[in-house]
Design a protein that fits this description.
The chain has 386 residues and is α+β, with helices and mostly antiparallel strands. Helices cover 43% and strands 22% of the residues. The model has no long low-confidence stretch (mean pLDDT 96). Bound molecules: alpha-D-galactopyranose (GLA).
Length: 386
């Protein structure tokens, strides 16, 4: 991301004065998909792509926001009841509201922002936007009194309350807490986490972006979450002596026991979540031993589950996964919520060029457009840049 680029637009679109610059990243996730809102584990890291904003208090109670990439300008009052319509501006509006709930006396400001985290690629451009503004507002108006975790929760609440997505905590967590060169294993129930240096010498992590984003992805995401909750409700009814808050508290026998009390579809969704729970733990164990073959094997199993059980894949992503398998790539799977976006691939160094060439050639031949390729560079979380 380019400071001078953001600054030049900020100066041009407002009163010529400069402000302060902040940035926050998108994320990858090695394994643990759709586990966050089920109280499970995730394994994300922040990336070198994200959102950068310049911001300056303007002495009013109005926010004037300019999206450099969309060339769109929106104004809203800090105390507006309903907020702006433009979806990009609702993230900023939501963060303003949620930071106010955290006790920050947010005043009006001018801001321009731009991003290089690809939209709809499953790398959480929206979490990057939320964390960037949470961090900036905390610094500008809150004396940095709001904790990192509260900024994470403000981002998640923005999605729930203003953007209609009942997401988990992973994306905002990674965007705020990320550290260069380290993945993080987060227990989404207790919120304990650990940094994991991730620098395998013989492998690279690479994202292959299908460049498709399916409409209705947010409502389908919310449906998946609902399915998990339905299964939990059935278990609570059957196992009154047990404390079951999320699928984290469930096991295979319990799922078997409620199979006939829930729809086949809900049971299949829960099957994926229980399997994914086991896979994350297997991957942690394998990483500790430096056993990347086992990491990769679990990634393929996650892809299968996301495609056939959780049903959040699409032809394009399944095809990218097939190409990876055919080329002998160690691990490959859909990353993020699904319904389009990227696969994340664990590739031996010597196979990298062949895999990328194969993916581009075969994918283009089948779908008529090329996938995009991003090398993963694990980077720092939200911060003040200047
Ligand atoms: C999206 C959500 C996350 C998480 C992933 C799937 O990125 O924002 O909370 O649920 O999907 O793992």
């Amino acid at each position: 991301m380019d400071i001078e680029f953001v600054r030049s637009r900020f100066i041009k679109h407002f009163d010529g004065k400069t402000g302060s610059i902040y940035a926050a990243p998108g994320r990858i996730n090695l394994i643990g998909e759709h586990t966050d809102y089920n109280g499970g584990f995730v394994f994300p890291g922040a990336v070198d792509k994200g959102i950068m904003c310049e911001i300056r208090p303007n002495g009013t109670d109005k926010v004037n926001a300019y999206s450099i990439d969309l060339k769109d300008r929106v104004e809203f009052g800090v105390n507006d009841q309903s907020g702006p319509k433009a979806s990009w501006a609702r993230y900023i509006y939501g963060i303003v509201q949620e930071m106010k709930k955290n006790g920050v006396d947010v005043k009006g400001f001018n801001t321009a922002f731009a991003g290089d985290v690809p939209l709809g690629a499953g790398m959480s451009s929206s979490a990057a936007l939320e964390s960037c503004f949470a961090y900036a507002i905390n610094d500008q108006f809150g004396d940095n009194k709001v904790s990192k975790w509260d900024m994470v929760l403000a981002g998640q609440a923005t999605e729930h309350n203003y953007c209609g997505v009942n997401c988990g905590i992973m994306d905002q967590f990674a965007s705020v807490f990320g550290q260069e060169g380290k993945l993080m294993r987060l227990d989404c129930r207790s919120r304990e986490f650990e940094y994991f240096p991730f620098k395998p010498n013989e492998y690279k992590l690479v994202l292959v972006d299908s460049v498709v984003k399916h409409e209705l992805a947010s409502s389908a995401y919310n449906d998946r979450r609902k399915s998990c909750e339905n299964v939990v409700a059935a278990m609570q009814k059957k196992f009154t002596d047990k404390k079951i808050e999320t699928l984290r508290d469930a096991d295979w026998d319990m799922l078997e026991a409620v199979k006939n009390d829930v729809s086949d579809e809900d049971a299949l969704r829960a099957k994926f979540v229980l399997g994914e729970k086991d896979r994350v733990l297997a991957v942690c164990d394998a990483l500790n031993k430096g056993d990347y073959e086992t990491v990769g094997k679990n990634m393929y199993e996650t892809h299968y589950g996301l495609s056939k059980e959780y049903e959040v894949s699409c032809n394009e992503l399944d095809y990218l996964n097939d190409i990876a398998k055919e080329t002998g790539v160690t691990g490959s799977r859909i990353m993020g919520g699904g319904f389009g976006g990227c696969t994340i691939n664990l590739v031996k160094n010597e196979l990298y060029d062949k895999f990328i060439a194969n993916a581009k050639e075969k994918y283009t031949a089948k779908f008529g457009h090329a996938p995009k390729v991003y090398d993963v560079i694990i980077s720092d979380g939200a911060r003040k840049v200047e």
